[in-house]
Amino acid sequence: MDARLLMDESPRERMVAAAIQGMRGSGLAGAGINQVIAASGAPKGSLYHYFPGGKNQLAQEALERFGEERRAALAKLAQSAADPPARLRRLFGGLAKALEKEDFTYGCAVAGVALDLQEDSAPLAAVCAAQMDLWVEALEPAFAPLSAPRRLAWARLVIATFEGALVQARALRSAQPVLEAGELLAGAVRLEIETH
Amino acid sequence: MDARLLMDESPRERMVAAAIQGMRGSGLAGAGINQVIAASGAPKGSLYHYFPGGKNQLAQEALERFGEERRAALAKLAQSAADPPARLRRLFGGLAKALEKEDFTYGCAVAGVALDLQEDSAPLAAVCAAQMDLWVEALEPAFAPLSAPRRLAWARLVIATFEGALVQARALRSAQPVLEAGELLAGAVRLEIETH
User: Fold this and answer.
1) Which of B30, B156, B171 sits opposite A129 (nearest CB)?
2) Interface predicted TM-score (ipTM)
3) Which of A38, B37, B95, B112 qualifies as a FRET site for B102, CA 20 to 30 Å off?
């Protein structure tokens, strides 16, 4: 999505969209004031008009917007008519497709920011943590035949592996690690369901 | 490690150490010229003297140095007198301890950079990929009773989960996701060994 194409959106909306895309591409450095202004087409000097809390307020809104989209997708996946292994293949298959479509240039805004935190951006850690907790919660029902503690453990593990496989894929410029991770986890969860 | 304490090292060595620590803390932004000069105590303007290739040359050397340390640790773990589940618990337990010791402020230089890549730093993707491949290769023997393709699949998966659990831990400022990930993977690999 090129934020500059969203000219029917308000400047404020375009700035949030530009910050999300910047963080997906290069973490906090991608959501710097100059980059957001340039990508959103918002007037220079308007950041503090729309976001009185400055860069961190913009970053927080962008993380929450990005997080909510992913949470909704995970909740939908968890409710889909499929067994847990099929759901995992679908999750990692979807990530692989998205990575290829965007030429391995974009990833996860939350992970990008979590690994970029410095003193001035430290309050964003809690924002990242809250989003990842919501993802775990949304994904947990996907492991339905397992007990509640196992569902939760698997959901947290899958979110971790999803983020790490994304790192591998961006570096390798190949979706293969993502597909392999989905396949291995699908087999492992199938084995646990069969043997418990 | 505070690079400024390493005054017995050459300025060049101190710059590499400072770049590693910066990337571990905040990705590429942490390895900017000003930050490396300040943290290393190297003379202003000396970056291009020591690194004619500029920022990317420094970043490449730092990634390779960081990567080699981790590779050696993984190779040692893979050869240790323990079974695969115990090795996994040791790997993730070690990460948990390191995170706590550094107050969740530092992580993996390679992941931090891989999620920060922009056009000018794009060549570093291959450097990150090469290091992660070496880690997978070093870790593969850790899954010894399994077949070669399964050892490789598990090694790649574990590196992915390691990186993603680190993201979760830094955001949550808690080592719990790391310990849980190690425990779940240890159980899953044990189940695969028992049933195959």
Assistant:
1) B171
2) 0.94
3) B37
